[in-house]
UniProtKB/TrEMBL annotation:
PANTHER family in the record: CARBOXYPEPTIDASE, SERINE PROTEASE FAMILY S10 SERINE CARBOXYPEPTIDASE
Signal sequence annotation: 1-22
Keyword match Glycoprotein: yes
Name of protein: Carboxypeptidase
Enzyme class per UniProt: hydrolase
Length: 490
């Protein structure tokens, strides 16, 4: 039997349309306000409920080969930040164009660098109380690292029961920022479940962490000092003075050390911690003026240049509190508390906020209205989050020595979680180097550098990217993501 190209395309489309027929009724997303056209693959969304918790997910079937492509769970950090951050601003299926006039609903265009090009991907609002996830019982908003891992594992088991056609697909966990804690703790919980024979068995293969916290001695001011000194943000004198007066003790600094650290703070206070190349404006009025000011220098207007209709946001807020501040505090404060102190300026997420609080959008994606699930915020203060686990290094070592694959990547202009700390902790594992430090190529250009280790561990930098790598470098991000998932050299 000979099938011509047209019939073959029709056959493939029928196969794709039939592929998720086992999905729960009412989960299919058929339209989205702001987008005109057909989706390249099926979209599903809704809630999974257990223990009085309602966790919201948005699932995109791979545009390539959903029968074989990996299923990837995406988690944003905070703690307390919605994974719609990744959906709207990073590697989701759409690019969002700000509505005109200002305040109008955004327009959506297909994203040529969506990670759904090569994988099935789940965006999950976790823990309960974050984003569109909610509970009528607000005591469920009291949580922490371990409880979040347990709940997300429960979600995955229930999700695979609803979508059994994906049980045999390779499964990966991915995330950024504070998801540097979420990802390895969840991965460990998944592995424990596999060993205990919990059904359905998750076909777990590995994980990715982008600009992620490790909560180890390599994070914090040590990483910040080497980063800012190497980038020319502090002088030799300041660098040497801090080393001399503090002697590595930043938790309870002496008076002299505190004075030296004050010089560091003053040197960095005007910078955008999420990308040191991005301009930062220090109050809402000046931010609005600057965004509409065509007299800004061309070099500033071109910073964060991207293929997206919605340019890289000029912000310093809502992702993760800088690790050097956490080290000095000795605990993990949530960002709203710090914002009230006036510590973190320069932030706008108007497009995502307007879109996800539009009731027609919520209806289209099967989310509860604001009267039930509350107002969507990029990062929320309604959860009471405590950190119960320590350094992630033992988690990474345990997972990688069990032959689970790990890609640890860093935008090299992020000052929130500097690549210097990530490079140091990956090296500290002591694994044999099997792919010595070298550039990697995207679009015929050097896109960054990598070092490959034994036990399937890769450390990778993305040149010129900030904290949220795919937001700054979408093409390069899809390149390393697809190559790594396919087991090809990056």
């Amino acid at each position: 039997m000979v099938i011509d190209n047209l019939n073959l395309a029709t056959f493939c489309m029928i196969l794709l349309l039939a592929f998720t027929e086992a999905a729960p009724k009412g989960s299919l997303v058929t339209r989205l306000p702001g987008f005109n056209g057909n989706f390249p693959s099926k979209h599903h969304s809704g809630y999974l409920s257990f223990d009085q918790k309602n966790l919201f997910y948005y699932f995109i079937v791979s545009e390539r080969n959903p029968l074989k492509d990996p299923v990837v769970l995406w988690l944003n950090g905070g703690p307390g930040c919605s994974s719609f951050d990744g959906f709207v601003y990073e590697h989701g299926p759409f690019n969002f164009e700000e509505g005109k006039p200002k305040g109008s609903p955004p327009k959506l265009h297909l994203n040529p660098y969506s990670w759904s090009k090569v994988s099935n991907i789940i965006y999950l609002d976790s823990p309960c109380g974050v984003g569109l996830s909610y509970s009528i019982n607000t005591t469920k908003y009291i949580t922490g690292d371990q409880q979040t891992a347990v709940d997300t594992h429960t979600f995955l088991l229930k999700w695979l029961e609803l979508y059994p056609e994906f049980v045999t697909n390779p499964f990966y966990i991915a995330g950024e920022s504070y998801a540097g804690i979420y990802v390895p703790t969840l991965a460990s919980e998944v592995v424990k479940g596999i060993k205990a024979g919990k059904k359905p068995i998750i076909n777990f293969k590995g994980y990715l962490v982008g600009n992620g916290a490790s909560r180890s001695k390599f994070d914090g001011i040590n990483a910040l000092l080497s980063f800012t000194h190497g980038m020319g943000l502090i002088s030799d004198d300041i660098f040497e003075e801090i080393q001399s007066t503090c002697k590595g003790n930043y938790y309870k600094p002496t008076a002299n050390c505190d004075t030296s650290l004050g010089k560091l703070d003053r040197s960095l206070s005007g910078l955008n911690i999420y990308d040191i190349l991005e301009p930062c404006y220090h109050d809402p009025e000046s931010q609005q003026k600057a965004q509409g000011n065509s007299t800004l220098p061309v070099s500033f207007q071109q910073l964060g240049a991207t293929d997206r209709p919605l340019k890289v946001r000029k912000r310093m807020f809502g992702r993760a509190w800088p690790l050097w501040a956490l080290e000095r505090e000795g605990h993990l404060p949530l960002w709203p508390k710090l914002a009230e102190q006036g510590s973190v300026p320069c932030f706008s997420d108007e497009v995502a906020t307007a879109w996800l609080n539009d009731e027609s959008v919520r209806k289209a994606i099967h989310a509860q209205p604001k009267s039930i699930a509350g107002t969507w915020e990029l990062c929320t203060d309604r959860i009471d989050y405590e950190s119960y686990v320590g350094s992630m290094i033992p988690y990474h070592k345990n997972l990688t020595t069990q032959e689970y694959r790990a890609l640890i990547y860093s935008g090299d202009h992020d000052m929130c979680v500097p690549f210097t700390g990530t490079q140091a902790w990956t090296r500290s594992l002591g694994y044999k180097i099997i792919d010595e430090w070298r550039p990697w190529i995207s679009n015929d250009q050097v896109a960054g550098y990598l070092q490959g280790y034994d036990n399937n561990l890769t450390f990778l930098t993305i040149k010129g990217a900030g904290h949220t790598v795919p937001e700054y470098k979408p093409r390069e991000s899809l390149d390393f993501y697809s190559r790594w998932l396919d087991g090809k050299p990056i």
